[in-house]
C-alpha cells in the first residue's frame, strides 16, 4: 500500500487538516480505468492543424500580486505602492519586478495579459482550469460531480493525445496541499471521472516550519507517478489486489453504462495497466535520468522538478500538464501577510524555472508547439493591509503566455493608477480558456452534455483573445 501524508493547511481558508491517505497504488489512477475510448462516436470539433499540440499551465495558487510582479505602479501613493522596483525588459518600455530578471529577458517572446478579471473569489484552480467564474466557496470549494470539466478533461473527451503516455497530468499532487483535500478545478466533473487527470504524488520536505508572519520555506522533492516504481516487481498477488481495487473504483460508473459495458470495462482496464507500465510512461517520469546540470537549471525544489517533468511529458506526447504551486509551510501565493518578504522567497525560483523551461523548450524545438501559461486564480488588492500583505482581488490579475501560437513581445490590457481595475481590455476567465482552446484547435464555442443532457458551453460565454494569437 502507498501511504501519502498530507500536512496542515496554512492558507487563508482557515481550515486545519491533517490526513493520512492509504490507497492501493493503482487506485489513484481511476481516470484511466475507462480511458477516452470508452464513449460513443461523436463529431469532434477539432481543426486539422493548430499551433499548440500541448499546454503546460503553471498555476500560482493563492493569487500572485500582479502589481508587484508584472504591473508595478511606482507613482502610486503610500499604502498602495509596493517596496519593489521595476526593471527594464527585452521589450522597450515594458517593465517588470526587480525580482524577475530572467523573465525580463524573455518578455520579447511573451504575451502578457495584465487584465485577467472575473468574479470568483475562491482558493482553488476552478476558474483557471474551467473558465467558469459564477460560483463561490460554499458551492465550489471542493470537487464534486456537478462541476464543470477542466480544459484537460475536454481534451481527453475529444480523444486528443496518445495511447502510450498519460494525456492529462496534474503535478505535484491533488490540488489541496498535496494529498490533504480535493479542490475543485482539475476534474472531469459531469463528463465523468474517466476524464480526470493522472495525479502524481509528492511528499515535500521542509527545512523547518513556516513562521507566524508567513515566512516562506522552500519545498524540496519531486513528483512521482503513482505505482510506477512497483510495476517492475509486481507479483501476481499484488497485481490481483490492485486489479480488485480498480474494479471497485469503477463499479458506480459501470452501473450507469449500457448493457454490455462489463466486457468493455475489462478491455479498457487492461489498456490502463498497459499505459502505466509502458516503457514510454516510465521513461517520462524518470526525472533522475536528466543530467544534473539540467536539473540545476530548473532548481532543486518541487516546482522546478515539476516543470522539468512537464517538459519530459510534453516531449513524450502528453497534451495537457498542470503544475499547481501549492504546499504547506507558506509555500504558495496567498500573501495576506509579509507580502514583500514572501515575494523575495517565491519570485527567484519562479524566475529560474520559467526561464529554464522556456529556454529548454526553445532549444528542443518544442516552444512553438507548446503553449506555456503562468497565472493564478486571482490577483491581490491594491491596498497593503496591516500585516504588510495584500488581500484577495479577483477584479484584476495577470496571465503570462509563451509559445504555442501566441504573439511575441505583446502586452494586452491596461489597469488604473492603482492596478485595481482594468481600464482597457478586461479578459474574463471564459476568455482565457477560450484562447487556450483556440490555440489547441478546439472550437471554443462547442458544448458538452451536462448531467441532465443539456448542452453546456465549454468556454462559458468566453471568446478568444485574438490580440494574443499570432
Describe the structure.
The protein has 470 residues and is α/β, with parallel strands linked by helices. It has a single domain, classed as 3-Layer(aba) Sandwich (Alkaline Phosphatase, subunit A), CATH 3.40.720. The chain contains twelve helices and 18 strands. The strands form six sheets. It has an eight-stranded mixed sheet with strand order 8-7-9-3-10-13-6-14, sandwiched between helices. The chain has a two-stranded antiparallel sheet with strand order 1-2. It is globular, with a radius of gyration of 21 Å.
Short description:
The protein is an alpha/beta fold. 26% of the residues lie in helices and 15% in strands.
Strand order of the largest sheet: 8-7-9-3-10-13-6-14
What percentage of residues falls in helices of 4 or more residues? Answer: 25-40%
Number of domains: 1
Based on the structure given, which CATH architecture is correct? 3-Layer(aba) Sandwich
- What fraction strand? 5-15%
Q: What's the overall geometry? A: globular
What is the CA-atom radius of gyration, in angstroms?
A: 21 Å
What series of H and E elements makes up the topology?
EEEEEHEHHHEEHHHHHHEHEEEEEEEHEE
- The CATH topology assignment is Alkaline Phosphatase, subunit A
Number of helices: 12
Overall mean confidence score, pLDDT: 83
Write out key terms for the chains shown.
two-stranded antiparallel sheet; alpha/beta; 470 residues; Alkaline Phosphatase, subunit A; 18 strands; eight-stranded mixed β-sheet; globular
Amino acid at each position: 500500500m502507498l501511504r501519502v501524508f498530507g500536512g496542515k493547511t496554512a492558507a487563508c481558508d482557515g481550515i486545519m487538516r491533517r490526513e493520512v491517505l492509504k490507497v492501493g497504488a493503482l487506485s489513484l489512477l481511476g481516470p484511466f480505468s475507462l480511458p477516452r475510448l470508452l464513449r460513443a462516436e461523436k463529431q469532434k470539433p477539432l481543426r486539422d492543424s493548430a499551433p499548440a499540440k500541448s499546454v503546460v499551465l503553471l498555476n500560482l495558487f493563492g493569487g500572485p500580486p500582479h502589481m508587484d510582479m508584472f504591473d508595478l505602479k511606482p507613482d502610486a501613493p503610500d499604502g498602495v505602492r509596493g517596496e519593489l522596483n521595476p526593471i527594464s525588459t527585452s521589450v522597450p518600455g515594458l517593465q517588470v519586478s526587480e525580482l524577475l530578471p530572467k523573465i525580463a529577458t524573455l518578455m520579447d517572446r511573451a504575451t502578457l495579459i495584465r487584465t485577467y478579471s472575473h468574479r470568483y473569489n475562491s482558493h482553488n484552480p476552478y476558474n483557471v482550469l474551467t473558465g467558469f467564474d459564477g460560483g463561490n466557496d460554499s458551492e465550489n470549494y471542493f470537487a464534486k460531480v456537478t462541476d464543470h470539466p477542466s480544459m484537460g478533461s475536454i481534451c481527453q473527451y475529444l480523444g486528443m493525445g496518445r495511447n502510450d503516455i498519460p494525456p492529462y497530468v496534474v503535478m505535484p499532487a491533488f490540488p489541496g496541499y498535496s494529498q490533504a483535500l480535493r479542490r475543485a478545478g482539475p476534474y472531469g466533473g459531469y463528463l465523468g471521472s474517466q476524464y480526470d487527470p493522472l495525479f502524481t504524488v509528492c511528499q515535500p520536505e521542509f527545512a523547518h516550519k513556516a513562521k507566524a508572519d508567513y515566512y516562506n520555506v522552500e519545498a524540496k522533492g519531486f513528483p512521482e507517478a503513482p505505482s510506477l516504481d512497483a510495476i517492475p516487481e509486481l507479483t501476481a498477488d499484488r497485481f490481483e489486489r490492485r486489479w480488485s481495487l480498480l474494479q471497485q473504483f469503477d463499479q458506480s460508473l459501470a452501473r450507469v453504462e449500457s448493457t454490455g459495458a462489463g466486457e468493455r470495462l475489462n478491455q479498457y482496464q487492461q489498456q490502463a495497466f498497459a499505459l502505466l507500465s509502458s516503457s514510454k510512461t516510465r521513461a517520462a517520469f524518470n526525472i533522475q535520468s536528466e543530467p544534473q546540470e539540467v536539473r540545476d537549471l530548473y532548481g532543486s525544489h518541487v516546482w522546478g522538478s515539476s516543470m522539468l517533468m512537464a517538459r519530459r511529458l510534453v516531449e513524450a506526447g502528453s497534451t495537457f500538464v498542470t503544475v499547481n504551486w501549492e504546499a504547506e509551510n507558506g509555500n504558495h501565493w496567498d500573501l495576506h501577510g509579509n507580502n514583500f518578504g514572501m515575494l523575495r522567497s517565491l519570485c527567484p525560483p519562479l524566475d529560474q524555472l520559467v526561464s529554464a523551461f522556456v529556454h529548454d523548450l526553445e532549444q528542443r524545438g518544442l516552444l512553438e508547439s507548446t503553449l506555456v501559461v503562468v497565472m493564478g486564480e486571482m490577483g491581490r488588492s491594491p491596498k497593503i493591509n496591516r500585516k504588510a500583505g495584500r488581500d484577495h482581488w479577483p477584479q484584476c490579475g495577470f496571465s503570462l503566455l509563451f509559445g504555442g501560437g501566441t504573439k511575441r513581445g505583446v502586452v494586452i490590457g491596461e489597469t488604473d493608477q492603482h492596478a485595481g481595475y482594468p481600464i482597457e481590455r478586461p479578459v474574463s476567465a471564459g476568455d482565457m480558456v477560450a484562447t487556450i482552446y483556440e490555440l489547441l484547435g478546439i472550437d471554443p464555442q462547442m458544448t458538452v452534455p451536462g448531467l441532465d443532457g443539456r448542452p453546456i458551453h465549454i468556454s462559458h460565454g468566453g471568446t478568444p483573445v485574438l490580440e494574443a494569437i499570432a
